[in-house]
Amino acid sequence: MEDLGVAVVIEDDADIRNLLEGVLRQAGFVVHTAAEGREGVEVVRNNMAQVVTLDIGLPDIDGFEVLRRIRNFSDAYVVMLTGRTEEPDLLSALNAGADDYIAKPFRPRELRARVAAMMRRPRHEINRPQQASPSWAAAPAAPASFIPSLGHTPSGQSSSVPAGVLQHNGLVLNYRTRTVVIGETSLGLTRSEFDLLHTLLRGEGAVCTRSDLVRAVRGDLYEPDAYISEADERAVEVHIGNLRRKLKEDPQSPRWLQTVRGVGYRLAPQRTDVPAWPGQG
Fold it and tell me: If exposure means fewest CB atoms within 10 Å of the residue's CB, which of 116, 157, 218, 247 is most exposed?
């Protein structure tokens, strides 16, 4: 069994806490537990956890406050567990720094899939050595290069777009460095926001359903039968809303993301007044 590092379970319900501990230990983690929020913060701090499962409804301080405190010193992957799936609660969890969430009751297999999807996404801001992707959740290999067909290279002029880069209407996404730049401004996107934008750019204007985008965030691109809940789709809408705010999209004339009502989202059309690649005109 692989040693995947340290996981911390912060949960006041003893039965759920024991279940979470068993699932994560079986997956290959060294697991520590806490029944209260303040205790959980210290357990995460003292054990330098790589993964944290965090209940929202704790007896002393709520999970949102626990997460805010953890984010002051740790970039561990955090999964929030909640019985509340209303959009304000999801928005609060994601904005506070959660990587994912699971609505109660949950299935152990789903928890393992969510943790696996998180761990195979690189965290370039992590200062400690990068964790190897677990074998029980092998990720599909990223393409060695993309051939961007978004935008147009002027006739007779060779494209200078580097491998691994996609661009559209002045936005440049580098998959290898997981960076997004508009002009000279670098956008600070979360893992989920980056993955959603990357998926829409690769779609080149094709409609991506909410279910498609849930799989992109969860890493289930090759599991078409994976269960997609209503809460999952609402979370995608929250991520898209946050992404639009960071892009400073004009809702009347979006430059990058268009809503297809009742279906999902797609890339906005290429604008003729925007160079296909910085430096072109």
Answer: 157
